[in-house]
Write a structure and sequence with these properties.
Rossmann fold; two-stranded antiparallel sheet
């Protein structure tokens, strides 16, 4: 499988980086061909400008800075998103990546004259989310897990009809211990290795 890991964390030495490395190791061990997009390291611009928004429903993204992102997204069969959950959802950087890259004629087509959008990500048959959350699991459920739903319901709808999903979260991250982090890293490797 061709696996694209989309990593989003501003601190290079964060636990998120260890999660990224564990995921890449697990995917490589499976024999997958792996590519990584590190949004902060490459200084991805998540801000959609006015002209980009004006033409959003008319054409695919025209910004040359998005070309490699579009190509990698179209290459992928598996998507793995690794990010910290902030305020119960996606970091702004990752949300901006979706806004700008998962666009018309990339992730979906708009039929002439209206009607429902047509998914264009049908080559993607697996989506995994690997995240950390400051809140306990039960509170994340109470507030509705917006990050999880955005990716594994909303974005999944643009992928293959039987797209498989996986969600892994380390809850209470702010009170984590070396033991809880090591256990989560092992879980990520084990689950991705079998997936």
């Amino acid at each position: 499988m061709r696996a694209l890991v989309v990593y989003c964390h501003p601190v290079p030495e964060s636990f998120g980086a260890a999660l990224r490395d564990a995921a890449v190791d697990a995917l490589n061990a499976r024999g997958d061909e792996v590519r990584v997009i590190d949004l902060y390291a490459e200084k991805f611009d998540p801000v959609m400008c006015a002209d980009e928004r004006r033409t959003y429903n008319d054409q695919a993204p025209a910004d040359p800075a998005l070309k490699s992102h579009v190509e990698q997204l179209q290459w992928a069969e598996t998507l793995v998103f690794i990010y910290p959950t902030w305020w119960y959802g996606l970091p702004a950087m990752l949300k901006g990546w979706f806004d700008r890259v998962w666009a018309k004629d990339v992730a979906f087509a708009l039929p002439a004259g209206g009607g429902p959008i047509t998914p264009l990500m049908t080559h993607v048959s697996k989506i995994a989310v690997i995240t950390t959350c400051g809140a306990p699991w039960w509170w994340s459920v109470v507030v509705g897990q917006p990050g999880r739903k955005t990716l594994l319901r909303g974005m999944r709808a643009l992928c293959a009809k039987r797209c498989r999903t996986m969600y892994l979260a380390h809850y209470l991250m702010d009170a984590s211990t070396p033991e809880s982090r090591a256990a989560y890293l092992a879980k990520v490797k084990r689950k991705l290795g079998r997936w």
